[in-house]
Amino acid sequence: MGRNLEATIETFPIAGTFTISRGSKTEAEVIVCTITDGAHSGCGECVPYKRYGESLEGVLADIQAIARKIEDGLSREDLQRAMKPGAARNAVDCALWDLEAKRSGLSVSESIGVTGARPLATAFTLSLGEPETMAAEAAKNAHRPLLKVKLGTDNDEARLRAIRHAAPNAKLIVDANEGWTEENLAHHMAVAAELGVSLIEQPLPANRDEALAGIARPVSICADESVHATKDLAALRDRYDAVNIKLDKTGGLTEALAMKAEAKRLRFQIMVGCMVGSSLAMAPAVLLAHDADYVDLDGPLLLARDRMPALRYEGSLVYPPEAALWG
Protein backbone atom coordinates (compact mmCIF):
# COMPACT_ATOMS: atom_id res chain seq x y z
CA MET A 1 0.00 0.00 0.00
CA GLY A 2 1.40 3.40 -0.98
CA ARG A 3 2.05 6.28 1.36
CA ASN A 4 1.22 9.96 1.15
CA LEU A 5 3.09 12.82 2.83
CA GLU A 6 1.71 16.24 3.67
CA ALA A 7 3.36 19.11 5.55
CA THR A 8 1.63 22.18 6.95
CA ILE A 9 2.61 25.27 8.94
CA GLU A 10 0.77 25.86 12.22
CA THR A 11 0.99 28.69 14.74
CA PHE A 12 0.45 28.63 18.50
CA PRO A 13 0.34 31.83 20.57
CA ILE A 14 2.79 32.08 23.45
CA ALA A 15 1.46 33.16 26.83
CA GLY A 16 3.05 36.60 26.93
CA THR A 17 6.50 36.97 25.37
CA PHE A 18 9.34 34.46 25.32
CA THR A 19 12.74 36.19 25.45
CA ILE A 20 16.28 34.85 25.30
CA SER A 21 19.59 36.64 24.69
CA ARG A 22 19.03 36.58 20.91
CA GLY A 23 15.54 38.09 20.86
CA SER A 24 11.85 37.70 21.67
CA LYS A 25 8.80 36.05 20.15
CA THR A 26 5.08 35.92 20.86
CA GLU A 27 4.13 32.79 18.92
CA ALA A 28 5.49 29.35 18.13
CA GLU A 29 5.57 28.59 14.42
CA VAL A 30 5.81 24.87 13.74
CA ILE A 31 5.59 22.47 10.82
CA VAL A 32 3.57 19.26 11.07
CA CYS A 33 4.38 16.34 8.79
CA THR A 34 1.65 13.72 8.28
CA ILE A 35 2.32 10.41 6.52
CA THR A 36 -0.65 8.18 5.67
CA ASP A 37 -0.87 4.72 4.15
CA GLY A 38 -4.61 4.74 3.47
CA ALA A 39 -5.50 3.07 6.76
CA HIS A 40 -3.22 4.75 9.30
CA SER A 41 -1.62 8.15 9.80
CA GLY A 42 1.56 9.18 11.59
CA CYS A 43 2.48 12.73 12.59
CA GLY A 44 5.60 14.61 13.62
CA GLU A 45 6.17 18.24 14.52
CA CYS A 46 9.29 20.36 14.16
CA VAL A 47 10.28 23.92 15.01
CA PRO A 48 12.57 25.59 12.44
CA TYR A 49 15.28 27.58 14.23
CA LYS A 50 16.82 30.70 12.72
CA ARG A 51 20.01 30.27 14.79
CA TYR A 52 20.75 27.16 12.73
CA GLY A 53 19.98 28.77 9.39
CA GLU A 54 16.46 27.37 9.21
CA SER A 55 13.24 29.07 8.14
CA LEU A 56 9.64 27.91 7.86
CA GLU A 57 9.80 28.07 4.09
CA GLY A 58 13.13 26.29 3.84
CA VAL A 59 12.19 23.46 6.19
CA LEU A 60 8.84 23.02 4.45
CA ALA A 61 10.65 22.79 1.11
CA ASP A 62 13.08 20.20 2.50
CA ILE A 63 10.19 18.04 3.69
CA GLN A 64 8.38 18.35 0.39
CA ALA A 65 11.58 17.45 -1.48
CA ILE A 66 11.76 14.08 0.27
CA ALA A 67 8.04 13.35 -0.12
CA ARG A 68 8.35 11.19 -3.23
CA LYS A 69 10.94 8.93 -1.60
CA ILE A 70 8.82 8.62 1.53
CA GLU A 71 5.78 7.77 -0.57
CA ASP A 72 7.85 5.13 -2.35
CA GLY A 73 8.69 3.47 0.97
CA LEU A 74 11.92 5.09 2.22
CA SER A 75 12.74 3.62 5.64
CA ARG A 76 13.70 5.53 8.77
CA GLU A 77 17.20 4.11 8.51
CA ASP A 78 17.60 5.33 4.92
CA LEU A 79 16.11 8.69 5.91
CA GLN A 80 19.16 9.31 8.12
CA ARG A 81 21.34 9.30 5.00
CA ALA A 82 18.84 11.02 2.72
CA MET A 83 18.36 14.12 4.91
CA LYS A 84 20.73 16.11 7.09
CA PRO A 85 20.12 16.54 10.85
CA GLY A 86 17.72 19.35 11.64
CA ALA A 87 14.07 20.28 11.94
CA ALA A 88 12.91 18.91 8.58
CA ARG A 89 14.22 15.41 9.22
CA ASN A 90 12.80 15.51 12.75
CA ALA A 91 9.24 16.00 11.51
CA VAL A 92 9.55 13.20 8.95
CA ASP A 93 11.35 10.79 11.27
CA CYS A 94 8.83 11.22 14.08
CA ALA A 95 5.93 10.84 11.64
CA LEU A 96 7.41 7.53 10.50
CA TRP A 97 7.80 6.33 14.10
CA ASP A 98 4.16 7.23 14.77
CA LEU A 99 2.97 5.53 11.58
CA GLU A 100 4.90 2.37 12.45
CA ALA A 101 3.30 2.29 15.90
CA LYS A 102 -0.20 2.79 14.51
CA ARG A 103 0.29 0.06 11.88
CA SER A 104 1.89 -2.53 14.16
CA GLY A 105 -0.02 -1.89 17.37
CA LEU A 106 3.35 -1.80 19.16
CA SER A 107 3.91 1.53 20.90
CA VAL A 108 7.09 3.51 20.36
CA SER A 109 7.69 3.19 24.09
CA GLU A 110 7.76 -0.60 23.73
CA SER A 111 9.84 -0.45 20.55
CA ILE A 112 12.64 1.52 22.22
CA GLY A 113 12.57 -0.45 25.46
CA VAL A 114 11.01 2.17 27.72
CA THR A 115 9.00 -0.11 29.99
CA GLY A 116 6.89 1.23 32.81
CA ALA A 117 6.94 4.76 31.39
CA ARG A 118 6.23 7.22 34.18
CA PRO A 119 5.69 10.96 34.57
CA LEU A 120 8.84 13.08 34.56
CA ALA A 121 9.61 16.32 36.36
CA THR A 122 10.40 18.95 33.74
CA ALA A 123 12.15 22.27 34.12
CA PHE A 124 10.04 25.40 33.81
CA THR A 125 11.65 28.25 31.88
CA LEU A 126 11.89 31.84 33.08
CA SER A 127 12.19 34.22 30.14
CA LEU A 128 15.00 36.80 30.09
CA GLY A 129 14.01 40.14 31.57
CA GLU A 130 14.97 42.74 34.14
CA PRO A 131 16.04 41.33 37.53
CA GLU A 132 12.85 42.39 39.31
CA THR A 133 10.66 40.94 36.54
CA MET A 134 12.49 37.62 36.58
CA ALA A 135 12.35 37.53 40.38
CA ALA A 136 8.58 38.02 40.28
CA GLU A 137 8.23 35.10 37.84
CA ALA A 138 10.53 32.99 40.00
CA ALA A 139 8.39 33.73 43.05
CA LYS A 140 5.24 32.67 41.17
CA ASN A 141 6.94 29.39 40.25
CA ALA A 142 9.01 28.82 43.39
CA HIS A 143 6.98 25.67 44.13
CA ARG A 144 8.37 23.99 41.03
CA PRO A 145 11.33 21.65 41.65
CA LEU A 146 13.41 22.84 38.67
CA LEU A 147 13.61 26.29 37.09
CA LYS A 148 15.53 27.07 33.93
CA VAL A 149 16.71 30.68 33.87
CA LYS A 150 17.35 32.42 30.56
CA LEU A 151 20.37 34.73 30.90
CA GLY A 152 23.16 35.91 28.59
CA THR A 153 23.93 39.55 29.45
CA ASP A 154 26.70 41.49 31.22
CA ASN A 155 24.49 41.99 34.28
CA ASP A 156 23.44 38.43 35.03
CA GLU A 157 24.69 38.50 38.61
CA ALA A 158 21.82 40.79 39.60
CA ARG A 159 19.33 38.54 37.84
CA LEU A 160 20.66 35.38 39.46
CA ARG A 161 20.71 36.83 42.96
CA ALA A 162 17.16 38.15 42.61
CA ILE A 163 15.90 34.79 41.31
CA ARG A 164 17.62 32.77 44.02
CA HIS A 165 16.16 35.06 46.68
CA ALA A 166 12.68 34.62 45.20
CA ALA A 167 12.97 30.82 44.82
CA PRO A 168 15.37 29.69 47.55
CA ASN A 169 14.52 25.99 47.34
CA ALA A 170 14.22 25.43 43.59
CA LYS A 171 16.94 23.64 41.66
CA LEU A 172 18.29 26.06 39.03
CA ILE A 173 19.60 25.63 35.51
CA VAL A 174 21.13 28.70 33.87
CA ASP A 175 20.90 28.99 30.08
CA ALA A 176 23.09 31.77 28.69
CA ASN A 177 22.29 30.97 25.03
CA GLU A 178 25.88 31.81 23.98
CA GLY A 179 25.57 35.25 25.60
CA TRP A 180 28.55 35.27 27.96
CA THR A 181 32.14 36.13 27.03
CA GLU A 182 35.58 34.85 28.02
CA GLU A 183 35.95 38.05 30.05
CA ASN A 184 32.86 37.57 32.25
CA LEU A 185 32.70 33.77 32.23
CA ALA A 186 34.67 33.12 35.42
CA HIS A 187 32.74 35.77 37.35
CA HIS A 188 29.34 34.45 36.29
CA MET A 189 30.37 30.87 37.02
CA ALA A 190 31.54 31.85 40.50
CA VAL A 191 28.23 33.57 41.23
CA ALA A 192 26.34 30.53 39.92
CA ALA A 193 28.38 28.24 42.17
CA GLU A 194 27.79 30.46 45.18
CA LEU A 195 24.03 30.41 44.59
CA GLY A 196 23.86 26.65 44.15
CA VAL A 197 23.11 26.53 40.43
CA SER A 198 23.13 22.92 39.23
CA LEU A 199 23.95 23.38 35.55
CA ILE A 200 25.04 26.14 33.15
CA GLU A 201 23.93 25.69 29.56
CA GLN A 202 25.97 27.01 26.60
CA PRO A 203 27.71 30.00 28.22
CA LEU A 204 29.94 30.82 25.21
CA PRO A 205 29.27 30.95 21.46
CA ALA A 206 29.44 27.54 19.83
CA ASN A 207 32.36 28.48 17.60
CA ARG A 208 34.29 30.14 20.46
CA ASP A 209 33.95 27.72 23.35
CA GLU A 210 37.56 26.48 23.56
CA ALA A 211 38.09 28.45 26.77
CA LEU A 212 35.87 25.99 28.62
CA ALA A 213 38.59 23.35 28.31
CA GLY A 214 41.17 25.39 30.20
CA ILE A 215 39.29 26.63 33.25
CA ALA A 216 37.96 25.17 36.47
CA ARG A 217 34.27 24.39 36.19
CA PRO A 218 32.71 24.77 39.65
CA VAL A 219 29.30 24.19 38.03
CA SER A 220 28.69 21.54 35.37
CA ILE A 221 28.56 22.97 31.84
CA CYS A 222 26.07 21.69 29.25
CA ALA A 223 26.48 21.95 25.48
CA ASP A 224 23.45 23.03 23.46
CA GLU A 225 24.29 25.08 20.37
CA SER A 226 27.69 23.32 20.28
CA VAL A 227 26.20 19.84 19.84
CA HIS A 228 23.72 18.59 17.27
CA ALA A 229 24.33 14.92 16.53
CA THR A 230 26.35 11.88 17.57
CA LYS A 231 29.37 12.87 15.49
CA ASP A 232 29.83 16.06 17.54
CA LEU A 233 30.21 14.42 20.93
CA ALA A 234 33.80 13.19 21.12
CA ALA A 235 35.33 16.59 20.35
CA LEU A 236 33.42 18.22 23.22
CA ARG A 237 34.46 15.95 26.06
CA ASP A 238 37.21 18.29 27.27
CA ARG A 239 34.96 21.33 27.65
CA TYR A 240 31.47 20.12 28.56
CA ASP A 241 30.08 17.90 31.30
CA ALA A 242 26.60 17.46 29.82
CA VAL A 243 24.83 17.64 26.47
CA ASN A 244 21.36 18.87 25.57
CA ILE A 245 19.71 16.48 23.12
CA LYS A 246 16.90 18.09 21.14
CA LEU A 247 15.00 16.32 18.36
CA ASP A 248 15.03 19.44 16.21
CA LYS A 249 18.84 19.36 16.30
CA THR A 250 19.39 15.62 15.88
CA GLY A 251 16.83 15.35 13.14
CA GLY A 252 14.44 13.05 14.93
CA LEU A 253 14.12 10.30 17.49
CA THR A 254 16.20 7.77 15.52
CA GLU A 255 19.39 9.84 15.73
CA ALA A 256 18.54 11.10 19.21
CA LEU A 257 18.49 7.54 20.56
CA ALA A 258 21.91 6.85 19.02
CA MET A 259 23.28 10.13 20.34
CA LYS A 260 21.99 9.43 23.83
CA ALA A 261 23.65 6.02 23.88
CA GLU A 262 26.99 7.44 22.75
CA ALA A 263 26.76 10.37 25.18
CA LYS A 264 26.27 7.91 28.02
CA ARG A 265 29.25 5.88 26.83
CA LEU A 266 31.36 9.04 26.92
CA ARG A 267 30.02 9.77 30.42
CA PHE A 268 28.21 12.97 29.63
CA GLN A 269 25.23 13.94 31.75
CA ILE A 270 22.09 13.97 29.61
CA MET A 271 19.57 16.75 29.24
CA VAL A 272 16.62 16.25 26.90
CA GLY A 273 15.39 19.65 25.78
CA CYS A 274 13.02 21.28 23.31
CA MET A 275 12.18 24.32 21.27
CA VAL A 276 8.91 26.12 22.03
CA GLY A 277 6.36 23.87 20.37
CA SER A 278 3.16 21.95 21.03
CA SER A 279 2.58 18.62 22.73
CA LEU A 280 3.14 16.81 19.43
CA ALA A 281 6.76 18.00 19.38
CA MET A 282 7.29 17.04 23.04
CA ALA A 283 5.74 13.55 22.87
CA PRO A 284 8.70 11.62 21.42
CA ALA A 285 11.12 13.62 23.58
CA VAL A 286 9.25 12.54 26.73
CA LEU A 287 10.04 8.92 25.86
CA LEU A 288 13.67 9.80 25.06
CA ALA A 289 13.98 11.51 28.46
CA HIS A 290 12.83 8.61 30.63
CA ASP A 291 16.26 8.21 32.29
CA ALA A 292 17.85 11.60 31.56
CA ASP A 293 19.63 13.62 34.24
CA TYR A 294 17.70 16.78 33.30
CA VAL A 295 14.34 17.07 31.54
CA ASP A 296 13.43 20.37 29.87
CA LEU A 297 10.17 19.71 28.04
CA ASP A 298 7.98 22.60 29.11
CA GLY A 299 7.21 23.94 25.63
CA PRO A 300 3.43 23.53 25.91
CA LEU A 301 3.43 25.17 29.35
CA LEU A 302 4.69 28.35 27.68
CA LEU A 303 1.82 28.44 25.16
CA ALA A 304 -1.49 30.25 25.50
CA ARG A 305 -3.12 27.16 23.93
CA ASP A 306 -1.90 23.70 22.99
CA ARG A 307 -3.14 21.28 20.35
CA MET A 308 -5.70 18.62 21.27
CA PRO A 309 -5.22 15.93 22.30
CA ALA A 310 -2.35 17.23 24.41
CA LEU A 311 0.23 15.84 26.78
CA ARG A 312 -0.91 15.66 30.37
CA TYR A 313 0.91 18.11 32.65
CA GLU A 314 0.33 18.28 36.39
CA GLY A 315 2.40 21.11 37.79
CA SER A 316 5.92 20.26 36.60
CA LEU A 317 5.12 16.60 35.91
CA VAL A 318 4.71 15.58 32.27
CA TYR A 319 3.13 12.22 31.53
CA PRO A 320 3.98 9.85 28.65
CA PRO A 321 1.94 10.49 25.49
CA GLU A 322 -1.33 8.68 24.85
CA ALA A 323 -1.62 6.89 21.50
CA ALA A 324 -4.18 9.40 20.27
CA LEU A 325 -1.48 12.10 20.37
CA TRP A 326 1.62 10.20 19.24
CA GLY A 327 3.41 6.88 19.39
From TrEMBL:
Cofactor binding comment, as recorded: Binds 1 Mg(2+) ion per subunit.
Cofactor(s) for this UniProt protein: Mg(2+)
Segments traversing the membrane: none
InterPro entries xrefs: DgoD-like, Dipeptide_epimerase, Enolase-like_C_sf, Enolase-like_N, Enolase_C-like, Mandelate_racemase_C, Mandelate_racemase_N_dom
Top-level EC class: isomerase
Domain Mandelate racemase/muconate lactonizing enzyme C-terminal: 131-222
EC id: 5.1.1.-
Keywords recorded for this protein, A-Z: Isomerase, Magnesium, Metal-binding
Family, as annotated: Belongs to the mandelate racemase/muconate lactonizing enzyme family.
NCBIfam families: racemase_DgcA (NF042940)
Name the UniProt record assigns to this protein: Dipeptide epimerase
